[in-house]
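Sample intake — ABC transporter permease
Collected from: Hyphomonas hirschiana VP5
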Amino acid sequence: MLNLTAPSFALEDSDEGNVLRLGGDWTVATINQLDAQLRAVSQSVPICLDVSGLGRLDTSGAYLIDRTWRENGAAWPPRIVGDHASAASLLEQVHAHAEPVPPPAKADAGLLAMLERTGKGSVDFYKETTASLAFLGETLVTIVRLLVQPWKLRWTSIVAVMEEAGLNAMPIIAFLSFFVGMVVAFIGATTLKDFDLEIYTIELIGFSMLREFGVVLTGIVLAGRTNSSFTAQIGTMKMRQEVDAMQTLGLKPMDVLVAPRVLAMLVMTPILTFVATLAGVAGGATVAWAALDINPAVFVERMRNSVPIDQFWIGMSKSPVFGLVVALIACRQGLQVGGSVQSLGKATTTSVVQAIFAIIVIDAIFAIFYMELGL
């Protein structure tokens, strides 16, 4: 075991200027006690380094000396006084390879900085939209090519994704829609009762669940559950360089990873929307039966007579679009994952946020479109 001498230093003002005199052993085992003391030297700028009393010196000790020189803004290299076997060369190497962390930039809260951030955000939004549309076009071309050559479709992957993203998601979507239908019925019954119009709760449940809530709830659940799952799966494969290996073998990620997921979602999202709509209507019927004494037979008969079937098809028409958007955003973000876990986490978060944002915006566009058609 080495017998190490405690390190020491002194900053002295002499005829040669400020001299930092070192003593003892400056190694990784001893320098921890000097860290705070050396930071206090920042008030004076050393010019010379006296190593005549210096014992052992390793890269940790040299880094501490180099950091002191940098923080004080002293000229480099220091003028070394005294003899030491390795001090000069070790300090030179540490200074050449050390990469000090720059101080964090202060947040600028001025008007120009705000305009700059707004401009950068707008440019990023434009680039992201353009890249997403390009990915959409590439995906559609791939799907059309595979549908023309169905023997190239990966049916096993499609069925597996349908089970994972569709059947496994069905219970949570059904339960969520059932309780939302109950809430809508309860609010409608409470409000319309003041006007003796509580019977119109049936119309409220029918229009809201068939046209909007069934498909929107399905889209949001898929955006939170399936979307993040797709991004994490593809992103993990990208981190492990499995996607690169796939391309080396002549397999296209669009054929193997993207197309099966998109096709599975195009099939399963309308089915999930149908289940969500039925569950929501069942929740509303339960509240109508319990609170308004409207038995299920009367509820169904009145809904059949007062709610046009067009409302059901309007809701169902949105579901393939929502499924396509969720799968596209998830796959694109997954393929953009880099080689770090931070990149995977950022891509997953971005994917979910973009999917929810897209579903709400597209639903609003559909509402305007059908309003213009008079539906």
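Post-analysis note: The two ends are 88 Å apart (CA to CA).
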